[in-house]
Amino acid sequence: MQARICCRRLVTVVSLAVLSAVGPVTARADQAPDPAQMAQRLDQQLQAELPQYASVEAGRCNDETFCRRVTLDVAGRLPTVEELSLFALDPGSDKRRELVRQLLASPEYGRRWGRYWRDVVFYRSSDVRALRAAGAFEDFMADRLNRNEPWDRIVREILTATGEIHLDGATGLIMAQLGEPEPVAAEVSRIFLGIQIQCAQCHDHPTDRWKREQFHHLAAFFPRVRVRPVAAAGGRSFLVMSVDRPLRLRGRRVKIEHFMPDLDDPQAPGKLMRPEFFLTGQSLPVGTPDQQRRRRLADWMTSKQNPWFAKALVNRMWHELVGRGFYEPVDDMGPDRQPTAPKTLELLAQGFRDADYNLKWLVETICLTQAYQQAVHNPQSSQSEEVPFARGCPTRLRPDQLLTTLQQVLLVELQATPRRRGGFNARAAQRRFSLTFGFDPSVSQDQIEGSIPQALFLMNSPITRAMTARPGSMLAQLLRQYPDDAEAVEELYLRCLARRPRQSEKRKALAYIRRVGNRAEAFEDLLWVLVNSTEFLYRR
After folding, report:
1. Of the residues 341, 365, 393, which one is the last residue of a structural domain?
2. Which of 7, 155, 194, 317 is the least buried, fewest Cβ under 10 Å from its Cβ?
């Protein structure tokens, strides 16, 4: 059966492969290590730091699992049956690396990770109005990621952004907090440094070394950036702007310096704070213009002499790809926290710095490690669940991944308007998926749980009601193309789970089809079971 599937698609698939083939993902700096060599060094360092790691690791996952895993991780979708077939046929020892590179070269890479960063920034937005900037920020990130702009340059754009929120997506983070100095400072530290200094806003940090004054010195970089409503072509919008002289907005006087509140006398003006970067003590005088403040903060934050900038991104990407970070949660790092395998983390962070913050280099490196390619379960060892990175960690699909996967499997078209019969409103579907299946990307995987609304949605939503054998549906096409039940079952598993059914699964499916007696009805039931399975909802 495998040979028939492979041969039937070989010509088409080889053509697609030639079109999508790309050169190596290279760093901007000559001293950057080769991703494969760095991946090997990381695995060796993990074994040295975690003595039990080598003895209990689950082993390398099979090709089908890797193809599904990396396609979901890098491109945000399932591999097609054609892509699976080509990957299985490829005898090359370097085919996993080539697949990673092809996915990184596709526009789907930027879109998948643009959506991820959109959720990182807007999941903790301070006001529902901020969500108006989410789409533009996603587009901004997708564009920069596909162009492989270095991480420091992207962060610099975000920190110094001004403009109308729909025209300049880089304004998204400031808009997410409506330009208020304290929440903007807190999010800048949390997202780009992995440090939750906001716990020191009212009192000295209870568990870390950060003092209240350090938080307010950081907030003092942002009192001159403001968000104001404006009229735009599409209706009401917002403008992120620099304010370097006193003025009134919405009937109140805008402060252009930051004052730390007096806790004993809330009505008092508070203490005037100069802009000072809490990690280094570097500062600017009171009165410094807005753009100069934010540019200097960007300089100090993204400097290669600041170890936390690279560590925060490396830890976050390792968490998203491997399923568990060196620090958990990913946005609660700092000198008073102890990570898992700190030398491995530092090795990867230094490689990222040497690569001049090349994000594609980082993704390729992590995907080539044994830690990333571990099988989910080691039946010979009950200890594999206790040793970090010793087995693959199933991760819940994000809402955008799940929606894309459902569209892909069911051949459902999301339209700009819902009027056409058989179509589904794209914005409404995406919004409902985000509300139903959304979760904070910064939390640990063990805090993400399914819910009754999620189960009900998958059982009885307009999209999943497309799981019928009506004319024109995916299932109707499949049953017509594969009159043999065994071949149809195998094709359905490949499309839904990106793997072939196990022999026991195939026997049960065929027995059920015979028992039902109605081929279309039986396959509708089988499709419904696969789409509602845990395996469909998770990246394994």
Report:
1. 393
2. 7
